[in-house]
Specification:
mainly beta; Outer membrane phospholipase (ompla), Chain C; Porin; 2 domains; twelve-stranded antiparallel beta barrel; eight-stranded antiparallel beta barrel; 8 helices
Length: 439
């Protein structure tokens, strides 16, 4: 996984979001947002043993878009400039790219990666837009995409057909199709072609069904390598997600406010079940972390119920100890709060997102070594929290925007079901306490 790409993306999302919070009015309008769970099945184009012709993976996805920042499923970035009545748009872009190796060898090879580059978009009309992209991986193996995408809506259906022409340089083809690192074989540049369609169906309220499919025809140079067995690659995504209700007008003013959360936590080798059963084990080396999260309001309602939902980027500093050097963790997530009175105001919170760490912590490294896995810098992120309102607790309205509470900071890889997270099982847990300021 490319270090510079994801680290820079998460850091810029965090700083851009915090900068945005100081330049907008106190009340927020309902945002473009979404969170989804997708299951991907793809063909394996490489010469593999019988039974390894397909590979599957579970893919959590987030969606968020405003004037400055966007996260759209497998990609995200920043809106850099718009001109000519917003028909032209320049974006900085990073996108996850699957390398469809058999599941049995994905952890050892860490095939999935992320590319970084720039995208120029031309909005032809209300239906069609065209993208030109120049992308590269961490070693500047380049590819360039020319894509046409249409958007059609029919009642509860949204359909997006698309077609892409991709140029790949010789280094790109040699790395991802000839696997020159292992075989010593190199090949030339080439152009491949992809056609597909994405679909979204509105079931009810905030619930949607999602699906997509596409097929890629490889160029002659990639197809002629010893590792490749099939010219065509296919993939299918199916799943569901939660998005704004398309049958309701967007709210112009939300009840939930932006927040800043500061937390400090202690590592534990215990799993989530043991932690919630209050039988956690203490980390003998007392590894600790400190985190800061910004919360940007998305909506204050889900399925007609009062649920506060935020886009929350964060940074966590893992302190050095006898067994580890310091490291920085970059997080982006969607978080929901359920409010209740007992007798003061309390909230349950849950967040789902992604986490990238520049140096694997001791607590993760030891678990991966025990299980025989190669650790992954990119993992799924979960946050479980419970907090109370300080103003209610001390009966002072001056403190009504301050909350204190507990959260479980969790990184894991979804039980070997996600190739983008290294096809591993396990991760790390930190029990944290925090103070949160609404503003």
């Amino acid at each position: 996984m490319t270090t510079f790409t994801l680290r820079s993306l998460f850091a810029l999302i965090f700083t851009s979001s915090c900068t945005l919070s100081t330049s907008v009015k106190a009340s927020q309008s309902e945002q473009d947002w979404g969170i989804a769970a997708m299951y991907r099945v793809a063909s394996v184009p490489f010469d593999t043993p019988v039974g390894d012709q397909t590979v599957s993976t579970f893919v959590p996805m987030m969606y968020f878009n405003n004037e400055y920042v966007f996260v759209d499923g497998l990609e995200g970035g920043f809106h850099l400039a718009k001109w000519h009545e917003n028909k032209f748009e320049l974006n900085a872009l990073t996108r996850m790219r699957f390398v469809d190796l058999p599941a049995s060898i994905q952890n050892a090879n860490q095939g999935d990666t992320a590319d970084f580059g720039f995208q120029l978009r031309y909005q032809l009309n209300d239906t069609w837009h065209f993208d030109w992209e120049l992308m590269g991986d961490e070693d500047t193996r380049l590819h360039s995409n020319l894509r046409a995408t249409a958007n059609y809506e029919f009642g509860d259906w949204q359909i997006q057909p698309h077609a892409t022409v991709r140029y790949k340089d010789a280094d790109f083809n040699s790395r991802y199709y000839a696997f020159d690192k292992y075989t010593g074989e190199t090949t030339g540049a080439g152009i491949d072609y992809n056609v597909g369609v994405d679909a979204r169906y509105h079931v009810t309220s905030n619930l949607y069904l999602l699906g997509s499919t596409s097929i890629t025809s490889l160029d002659n140079n990639a197809y002629s390598t010893q590792a490749v067995n099939d010219r065509f690659e296919g993939e299918v995504f199916v799943g569901f997600g939660f998005f704004p209700d398309k049958n309701k007008p967007r709210k112009t003013e939300l009840t939930n406010k932006r927040y800043l959360r500061i937390a400090h936590g202690w590592a534990t080798p215990s799993n989530i079940g043991d932690i919630f059963a209050l039988s956690r084990e203490k980390d003998p080396y007392n590894n600790q972390m400190t985190s800061v999260f910004y919360g940007h309001p998305l909506t204050d309602e889900l399925f007609g119920l009062p649920v506060d939902i935020f886009f929350t980027p964060g940074l966590a500093h893992h302190w050095d100890s006898k067994v580890q050097s310091s490291s920085t963790e970059y997080i982006a997530a969607i978080k929901a709060y359920v409010n209740f009175d007992w007798p003061t105001r309390w909230r349950f919170g849950f967040a789902e997102g992604i986490s990238y760490i520049d140096n694997i912590t001791y607590i993760e490294a030891t678990e991966m070594a025990e299980k025989g896995y190669t650790p992954s810098h990119l993992l799924n992120y979960l946050d479980f929290s419970l907090d109370m309102n300080v103003g209610d607790l001390i009966n002072d309205s001056d403190w009504k925007n301050v909350w204190v509470g507990y959260s479980l900071h969790h990184r894991s890889a979804i039980f070997e079901k996600a190739s983008q997270f290294g096809r591993i099982k396990g991760g790390s847990n930190y029990n944290t306490v925090y103070v949160q300021f609404n503003f």
